[in-house]
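Researcher: Re-running this chain for the archive, since the previous output was lost when a drive failed. Same request as before.
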Amino acid sequence: GILHRAFSVFLFDESTGELLLQQRASTKITFPNVWTNTCCSHPLHGMEPPEVDKPEDVANGTVMGAKHAAIRKLFHELGIPPAELPVEKFKFLTRLHYWAADTVTHGKTSPWGEHEI
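Model: Regenerated structure tokens:
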């Protein structure tokens, strides 16, 4: 696939340290029914507050755009109200280049997968 921006959220319960996982829907094109991180998606252009970060935001670790996108998606996917997700509690860990073909669902020559930064 075409390389594009994405983010992953790992949400921990502060009192127990447990990580909230979710199972992908059976209707997903890629990796259906797979247990995965709390939430993942893509920052969108034209959102308010803005979700697209500049290279200097990534370099200095502020990435407010990705954090706002994560808050939007946690509400969309899990129903967590934005007021319960203070942006200052989100921690940017790293940037990585990720590629994975979904060969389990679509076979060895799968055209489906993820190619993200």
